[in-house]
Amino acid sequence: MSRSPSPALSPNEPLQEASSSCPLAAAVAALAPRMPGVRQRRKAARPQELLEAALSLFVEKGLAATRAEDVAKLAGVSKGTLYLYYPSKDELFKAVVRAYLTQVIVEGSEMVDQAEGSTSALLNQLAQTWWLRVGASKAAGLLVLIMSEAKAFPELAQFYVDEVVAPSHALLARAVERGVARGEFRPLDVTSVVHALIAPVQFLILYRQCTSVCTANPVPLDPERFMATQIELLLRGLETRPAQPHSAAL
Predict the structure, then answer these.
(1) Half-sphere exposure (CA, 13 Å, Cβ side) for 155?
(2) Residue 87: DSSP 8-state
(3) pLDDT digits (tens, 9 = 90+) for 116-152
(4) From CA 240, how far away is CA 128, in angstroms rounded?
(5) What is the CA radius of gyration of the chain?
(6) Triad 27, 29, 32: Cα angle to 5°
(7) Are 66 and 89 in contact (CB under 8 A)?
(8) Which residue of 15, 30, 74, 235 has the smallest Cβ count within 10 Å?
(9) What are the backbone dihedrals phi and psi of residue 239, each rounded to the nearest 5 degrees, phi first?
(10) What is the pLDDT of residues 188-218, one digit of tens each?
(11) Burial classification of residue 117, based on how many CB atoms lie within 10 Å of its CB (0-12 exposed, 13-18 middle, 19 or more buried)
């Protein structure tokens, strides 16, 4: 007479049986339902971890030399997981630009919308925000990257112009026009003023990039002091009635 096979024990059954007589096992079992939540939080953080890894490698190696598997390895995930979030290196680069540069521009636009004080103070605030979020961070290397590899990646160079350069100019133009409309700034050519505001920033990034590999620099440059001086010079040229020095803002 055949007997029906005993049902296979599930992996959880020994734990459940022990939990009736072991308080420690019962405590572990009680915590088990929380584990999916931990995994969900880990999964939610993964895109940012991938972006941080990609930024590091893009700035260190460049676009052409950065491989998807290297980004995945640095982020501690598989290559397939990387492609699940960012299906190509181009899309990964665009995501990095949006996360580390576009977001700062968006926040700057909000500052202009909400500004209540003088336009000189507003420009100081914009410069300080840019320095803290971009200039003093690894994200500053994205400008050098796109300048050095634009010919090899013309579509990404155009993306950078559309996503970073043009919105940055529009943002600063709005700030300058605000100052002119309020009688704080002289009615100069706005486009030229914006280029003058951006030029010192670009110089600072390039200067630091070039001198960072030198064993000695006979002409050292303090970034904070440089930025404060440039802002002071520009504002004195813009203001209809030059006020007190603004260098304390940085």
Answers:
(1) 5
(2) S
(3) 999 999 999 999 899 889 988 999 999 999 999 999 9
(4) 23
(5) 27
(6) 115
(7) yes
(8) 30
(9) -65, 140
(10) 999 999 999 999 989 998 888 888 888 888 8
(11) exposed
